[in-house]
Amino acid sequence: MLAFVALCLCQQGRRRTGALLPALGGRTMIRTCRLAMLAPLVLSSLALGPAASAHPVAGQAPALASAKAKCLLTQDTANSKPDAPKFILAGAGFKAHSVSFAGGNGGGVTTTTNGSFSVNDLNAGRYTAKSDKDGTVNCGRTPQATGGQKNAKAQYRQGFSDGFAAIKKDCEAKPPQSLATVNPNYVKGFDDGAALATKQFCE
Length: 203
What we know:
single chain; alpha+beta; 4 helices; 7 strands; disordered N terminus
């Protein structure tokens, strides 16, 4: 488009200048017109150059960014008790075959499968994962107990206390008849408390 506009302007200028200065002006105008017509083409190629190079070459796959190692902590419901919650540490994107972890007053070493690992039955706390190829990765802190979990702990503690006291007082004591309708966490605590008291006072 710019070249077309330059061509039109040059044609008009040549007619005018050729009429006034047929000897010198016409030649000068021809050279000027040639430069004016080339200038838009040069500018267009310069403007398109960076944009064209920014796109990948046809048939060439774009470079993929390497996965970054990360880890997180979740509740381990299979191993948790109302008064002793347990957690799972899971990681992904690790380059090393062996990863060490630490936190919750403990730690250990685990192996990865396709860059991933999972360790269960862990105590509460803040954890990190470390390897020679990935460095130290912060996994964060174990999640806080929800309202339901806090209530479950309270029910368990109460049941444990009642069961322990009942057997301590009478080794032949039986669970209350209404115990079957009570919160299951209370029942669990009662049974555990009664078992401990039986071991201490009745055997």
